[in-house]
Amino acid sequence: MQIMKAVRIHTYGGPEVLVHEEVPLPRPQNDEVLVRVRATAVNPVDWKIREGYLREMLPHSLPLIMGWDVSGVVEETGPGVTRFNAGDEVFSRPDLLRDGTYSEYVVIRETEVAFKPESIDHIHAAAIPLAGITAWKSLIEAAGLSAGQRVLIHGAAGGVGSYAVQLAKWQGAHVIATASEHNHDYLHGLGADEMIDYRSMPFEDTIRDVDAVFDTIGGDTQERSWQVLKKGGILVSIVAPPPEAMAAAHGCRQAFVFIQPDAAVLAKLAQLVDGGKL
């Protein structure tokens, strides 16, 4: 039996439950590819799964290999695979219900894999899938953001927020970003038109009539965001579902985004990266 090294959890808990150990090397089945991992990334969903916060939503069988962002090279293809061959450089945000990417190899469904951007290395490519898909699904699909609209992005300097700023600007929107002051130059470089230091100024005191709010913070920030939306606007959250009753009371819409693997969106993101837009 061939083996590989991986980081797994055998029980839920803090960082101390992460175990670096040898495990059987997986083999690709029908419509799957075996990817040699060149780089992976760490996201908030990792620690939420590790600590058991998502066990009802994501009923895993333990032990479990952690990590769900990857860039690597196709090592082997299973029966039925048509888009990829051994040696192809790919990236993916695989299914959260399967073993992840803190490992030397990972088996992924062909439908969850896309060719990685040619213009960047594996380390940078591995930082794109989960955060990039989340930003795309939230702004491009859920909010339907279009040219000339105004969008308020909370937590704009974070992983998802940084992609959201760039995608909104690519769409031709006017981008308003909340972040601490030391991140304002960074956000301006990404394309933000206005920056608000949430530590010194309540955003609702200066912003009005935006078409969309993208909430990556939740809690009080989400609650105060209803005040800045125009009638018919939309509040999209990736933290907690915005209450439908609050949306109706303000004459607005709401959406909650929890992404699934999406190779088609990854392909579009790769094109934007290689085109210098992202």
TrEMBL record:
One of the entry's Gene Ontology molecular-function terms is:
zinc ion binding
Q: Where is the Enoyl reductase (ER) domain?
A: 13-266
Instruction: Write the record's keywords in alphabetical order, separated by commas.
Output: Oxidoreductase
* Domain of life of the native organism: Bacteria
Q: Does the keyword Cell membrane apply?
A: no
Q: Which Pfam families match?
A: ADH_N, ADH_zinc_N
Name of protein: NADPH:quinone reductase-like Zn-dependent oxidoreductase
Q: Origin organism of this chain?
A: Geobacter argillaceus
